[in-house]
# Entry
Amino acid sequence: MKKLQITTTLIAMIIAIGFSPEITGQSLSGKQIIEKVYNRPAGDDQTSDLTMTLINKSGDQRVRKIKQFTKDLGDLEKSIMFFLSPADVKNTSFMSWTYDSDQSDDQWIYLPALKKTKRISSDSKSDYFMGSDFTYDDLGDRKLEDDTHKLLREETMDGKECYVVESLSKDEDYMYSKTVVWVNKSNFIGVQKEFYDEDEDLLKVLAIKEVEEISGIWVITNSEMKNVQKNHRTTMVLNNIQINTGMSESKFSERMMMRGM
Amino acid sequence: MLLIAGQYTKAQNLDISGFARSYEGVLFNTGDFGIVQQTLNLNFEKRGNKVAFKANPMMYLYNADSLDFRMRELYLDLYFDNFDIRIGKQQVVWGKADGVFITDIVSPLNLTEFLLPDFDEIRTGVIAAKVNYYFGNSTFETILIPVFIPTERPPPGSIWYIQPDFPVTPTWDFSKETITPSLESSEIFLKYTALTSAIDFEFMGAYTWDDNPTLHVQKEFGVDSSTMQPILTGLNITPEHHRLAIGGGSFSSEIKGVILRGEAAYYNGKYFLTEDPLQPDGNIQKDYFHYLVGVDFNLGPVKLSSQFIQQTILSYDDYIVNDKIENTMTFLARYDMFRETLHLELFSYIGLTNEDALIRPKITYDFDDSFSILLGSNIFVGDEKGRFGQYGDNSMAYLKLKYNF
# Structure
């Protein structure tokens, strides 16, 4: 079954948190490590409140609040987000259907001022989400075969024994020349991830600050993405997380986009 | 119904939001302030699981003391398992077109400032009962409008008012312009919508009134005493709205990262002005076809959109005042910078038939999440007989300060 992501939502795939697959003791390849990270159990549906704080180099803050719902339907995952603040985007909603196959995502946005649901292009992965330091690609569902994975080394990070895996995109036009992720050996949860720009200079660093076990599922509840070149950052905090509530598929419809939560 | 609303929503808080906006525009030609407008928009909403309520009063203060109060929306929602009902004054938006009104004909337009207001402000709310029935990813929508509201036109004295060109001063008879609300005079709109993975589409039908009145003309003739030839001595003009039957549809789909959109409507029996001497009141009924195709795509970080629109009068004859075919294009480019705090945008209507255009560049800076400043321009160019070129003297630069709450 397809892994459930929180953010088309969230960062679940950025360093996709892994949940304690058995530790074999055998040496793993880079691909096997990332596969374990990606294929973690994540429940059939999730609900959460997301607070995203954009912090510039002067320390000024802008806050975005979102209510989000996600449901795993096997080879299809549906998610819907309702924007709560700031005021100028309030009641805007965004719906995404993501497929396990190579089919492009389907995405729609409802703009309350225009009272219209618009299909939007999924070909905007490099755009930054709501002005944050997360691109849509960072937040979306990356497939194992999209990259070539190489185990660089094993080392300790923040007191955790980690695998360090480098991933190179097979797509030459991909926005990052490479990414490097530190994966906790004990539970295959990501600890940190670095993103390198087209000149192979370090661009961004994602740090996972908190993870919580909710209904038997490990979820990243606090993370920070920092743009080290421009010295601004974005924090993401999840609250009121509910998993496996038996959410109806009808939640993911134009009706709900227009009506709201 | 209000009692039911109170029952279900009393435990919830009233949500208040909106904006305050200052909007000033200076005409290039004269340096006069063409627009001095202060706006307060308030949204009162109360949402429950079964019932919701919304009131949206808007106040426009023009110049120093001319206050225009409008209740843009005031409605009640009732939610059931498979259908919703909305009753009251509401704005309804249909179709896939941007800035063009083809199947989007439920809410009439407020054209007192031409096409310049934001598109959410250019529509007028209608008093209606709307029922949406849902099945799968489809929706069947039925709207009954008992009170007809026509297109709102700029009044004489407005810079957007175009003085009709008559050979003699006409006499106006407005006795037939108003439509008395009744079941018989109600408008009915139907729409089927499907939102699927491959394509979104809509089919619509309407039995409505033409939002623009037909100007029925009676001519009076005398005899020129010197030449003994008949001459036009008077015009009696009677504006009257007529029934229209309209059918159409729209679609939207993504092909390799490009959004392809289309929309079309067929108008049965629309009136057009004619110079045919055999038409006694200066009008003739013809069927009319209006369609659009458009694309949305990204070029790097720049979002682009373009639409081609064609209006065709069927069974055309050369006496009809309007062109047989009128072609228009729209073009939109948008670029967001500095973590979406600075927005550059260029939107244009381009009249291909009359070789005229409205060009609208603007730059918006968000000081914070509440306060933004917008500097823009509306530039009318081209043939003075064209839809856009006729406003050549109204080209302007403008400033909008907006506070959202």
